[in-house]
Amino acid sequence: YDSPAGSSSVCSEDNTGSTDFNDPTNPRNKPSALPPLGSSDEGASSKRFLWTLSFYAQFFDVDTSAVLSRCLAALYPRTPFLDTLEGNPDLYGPFWIATTVVFILFITGTISQYLASTHTAEHFAYNFKLLSGAAGLVYGYTLIVPVVLWGLLRWYGAASSTSGGERITLVECWALYGYSNIIWIPVALISWSPITALNWVFVGVGLAVSGGFLVRNLWPVVSMVEKRTSRVIVVGVVLLHAGLAIAIKNLFFA
């Protein structure tokens, strides 16, 4: 039986010039330069749009250890806070810190009102306006003030030396203000005392710690603008933060 010419050519190739698939010089054995479908490179190159969930999910992509370390850095600062963010500011920590402050202010404010009612003949009733007031105060301050500050810094062209010469981002401003609220958790837990002077001391400590944290971390950014303007911005930051502390004292621990 005579095999077809095509078969003989294949056989001759196998017998005389066989193709070795283990030979590294064989172009068939070279890896493809194209990434496989569904690879991380393909996902990294995809754009995130403002109206998609993936755009907002990137700001909550942080693990618990990173959030705890940032909370510790806000209470016991050793390095500039923007350095601890490592170019990955999050909104997860600021959101839950603000939410915790809101509920603790409501609970301790209710306890304070109950203790005050024990010295009167009036019947005590829960005041749920404290909850809405705490939410409006804390969420509003943490959301709006950083936006105004970022707008001013952007207008004057302030750049952060800790961000490689780039302007401070809005998310970094939110993270800075959000983590500065961590001190209000212990302050709210101990400020329900019926002793007014003692409550003022606690609130004053919270103001000093959180206000100092903000000024210390904002100054490298604010100092990039004209000297007089930078002082006005810092004074405005301090006054607004003092207003927050006074509002907390008068609304919940009067």
SSE inventory with pairings:
Blueprint: H1 5-15, H2 40-44, H3 53-57, H4 64-75, H5 81-84, H6 92-117, H7 129-155, H8 170-180, H9 184-190, H10 196-222, H11 227-252
What does this structure look like?
This protein has 254 residues and is mostly helical. Helix 6 packs across helix 7, helix 6 runs parallel beside helix 9 and helix 7 runs antiparallel to helix 11. The radius of gyration is 30 Å and the shape is globular. The termini are far apart. The N terminus is likely disordered.
**Backbone structural class:** mainly alpha
The backbone outline, from C-alpha atoms, is globular
Number of strands: 0
The biggest beta sheet reads:
none
Q: Give the averaged pLDDT, no decimals.
A: 78
Rg on CA atoms, Å: 30 Å
- Runs in which pLDDT lies below 50 for 5 or more consecutive residues are 1-19, 24-46, 160-166
Give the % helix: 55-70%
Supply the number of helical segments.
11
SSE pattern, N- to C-terminal: HHHHHHHHHHH
Strand fraction: under 5%
Distance between the termini: 109 Å
Keywords:
254 residues; mainly alpha; globular; disordered N terminus
